[in-house]
Amino acid sequence: MISPYVNQDVFIAALKKGDAKAYTYLVENYHHKLCIYAAGLTQDDDIAEDIVQNVFIRIWKKRDKLKDSFSINGFLYKSVYNEFIDTYRKKKPVFALEKKYIDALSTLVEEDEESLERLIALMKVEIQKLPPKCKQIFLLSKEEGLTNMEIATHMDTSIKSVEAHITRAFALLRKSIGEKMHGILFLLFGVNNAEI
Predict the structure, then answer these.
(1) Closest by alpha carbon to 117, among 171, 188, 190?
(2) How far apart are CA 137 and CA 170, in angstroms?
(3) 103 within a domain of the structure (yes/no)
(4) Is the pTM of this model over 0.70?
(5) 130 φ, ψ to 5°?
(6) Structural domain includes residue 152
(7) For all residues of the chain together, what is the average pLDDT?
């Protein structure tokens, strides 16, 4: 049976009234996805879980202030992002996250969940379409986290050649994905492997 909360207006109205089933629907449908997004931001599953939990608690406490018609997807992702920024400011030493990564991820906050999943899927497809050697070197760098020196040794090639292949991979991916490329790479491979 299709849930009545599939209709966003019905869902928001139910949340505002304090309908416990609507809150359960919110958590069941968004908890896992938001935790993945938050973990991409924090690189720490426990902190990510706390951030998502805080967002849900805040929504429930302030449910009567929710607007009648708005995008719940965008609102949730933006709330997680804002909560992350607050946490980041308080616990700066915990995160090895530089401003450029926050900027890269902020471009994804406006995306709804479907668009985000579509972009991640597109990125995976585009990586597979890279020229064979270019793809191999790019994945050794980003997925395996090898340094350019380690890749050069492993591939029996020069560091310059490795750098050229990685630069080419970035150029090809940017052409396909656009400026959101860095944020998507960050979500896929983490902070240490998404050099810009």
Answers:
(1) 188
(2) 12
(3) no
(4) no
(5) -60, 150
(6) yes
(7) 80
Residues 90 and 119 reside in one and the same domain? no
Please name the amino acid found at residue 33. Answer: K
Compute the C-alpha angle 171/175/179, nearest 5°: 90
If asked whether residues 88 and 32 sit together in one domain, one would say: yes
With the C-alpha atoms ordered 142, 145, 149, 150, is the resulting torsion angle positive or negative?
A: negative
Which tokens go with 57?
A: 């608690």
Closest CA to 141 of 171, 162, 164: 162
Strands (E), the chain: none
Total of domains in the chain: 2
177 burial type by CB count under 10 A (0-12 exposed, 13-18 middle, 19+ buried): middle
Q: Which range scores top for mean pLDDT: 22-26, 33-37, 77-81, 124-128?
A: 124-128
Instruction: Provide the domain limits for residue 62.
Output: 4-97
Both tokens assigned to 109: 């906050």
Q: Would you say the C-alpha torsion 31, 37, 39, 42 has a positive or negative sign? A: negative
3-state SS assignment for residue 120: helix
Tokens of 54: 């805080």
In the predicted model, is pLDDT for residue 194 greater than 60? Answer: no
